[in-house]
């Protein structure tokens, strides 16, 4: 049993009953809940008072129509039988940028927030409170005060391996929005495919977005292929459309453009980007054995700057993700030009070369008023000089970088935050959606805490939040993806929104019935 808290914001005419927090079946579970007596009857006579929240009001109107068939009208004002969307900037100090107040009374419903995002999230909670069928739809009286625990609540889709397309992405954004997730991490380039149109370099999509066959089965030798061509990419117009679609749902789209590794598709398009400059094909096999950019060549750096320039012009996001994981150093070690560059610039190891390169990209992005993010290898936590047998510490990663932790010792997080870096905790053992349910059960996913056990409280604010990752090697289509994503997406949403003290797997499982029914109707996902 949890002690419920008083609102203290404005008077409530409801008779308040102290009951367990889990009485409200909402995912993610709100911060504070009080239930009251009576119900609000939702009918065709109900109206929405939008105020200045026209976009959100129309979204609510559509959601009610889809859920009940009721055609609710927008009206400037009304005395009773209304759902009121109220903007109150004075609440920002208390509720932050994304918090809201939701109050359901027998005669009216109100959603009050200091921002349009807060209004939107209040609507998502309201949608889950609607009960009924046929011509009768009701909402039980309740007062909710809510705001997220973390500001970074992300889902990552890898399309470098398999292209999914705009329709699938929009469906994912819809589910993210209902679960109050606010960041779509879009992995658009990898060894097996380049999925974003770059106008200055058309071969990236003419060649790099297509492969002639694909490894299947996950066999140890990796020698089984489907023999089917696979390809696809997003035009810049399509990307803009998706960005706008996400923005209407208060979701920021963060692009990931991999560098300096996972770059074989780009090198297949323009061989001069690699160290050997030999023509290669877009890989059919998965893994990390492929060519990497020749970061000692000024032409390659200019190419990456050109690509990032177009990416920045497309994406409003203040964060650009550069990947930076799983870089194979063999080609750098074997290339005389790279070795000469390292000697000239007093760079002692390939790991230091990667950090020097990464810092150069960080400086370029900073000059464009963007912030760089990357997987935790960019911190030199896993960049080992094989010859020396130890990690080099000569080069230091640029300040302001966001570290996305995914693998290695959890001490890496301590190292990152103690050095002043912000961290997104995406520990693969808990957040990788390509892992089987045997490896990451729904309950294990739900039990993940983005703040590692034992982390000094003074560093807790350095944990921006968490992300769950849908890596694409073995998900060739939407159906196979959905089986991995749902229902675990709901668990990750609650991990990133709900206070740890308010989490309860049994209560979550009951609230999940709303989403399970929704996903079953949409995609037959049970």
UniProtKB/TrEMBL annotation:
Domain Beta-hexosaminidase bacterial type N-terminal: 24-146
Statement: the UniProt record of this protein carries the keyword Hydrolase: yes
PANTHER family, sorted: BETA-HEXOSAMINIDASE, BETA-N-ACETYLHEXOSAMINIDASE
Annotated ranges, domain Glycoside hydrolase family 20 catalytic: 150-498
Family: Belongs to the glycosyl hydrolase 20 family.
Phylogenetic lineage: Bacteria, Pseudomonadati, Bacteroidota, Chitinophagia, Chitinophagales
Protein's organism: Chitinophaga hostae
Pfam families reported in the protein's UniProt record: Glyco_hydro_20, Glyco_hydro_20b
EC class of the enzyme, as a word: hydrolase
EC number: 3.2.1.52
Transmembrane parts of this sequence: none
Domain of life: Bacteria
Name the record gives this protein: beta-N-acetylhexosaminidase
Reaction equation(s) it catalyzes: Hydrolysis of terminal non-reducing N-acetyl-D-hexosamine residues in N-acetyl-beta-D-hexosaminides
Keywords assigned: Glycosidase, Hydrolase
Gene3D superfamilies: Chitobiase/beta-hexosaminidase domain 2-like, Glycosidases
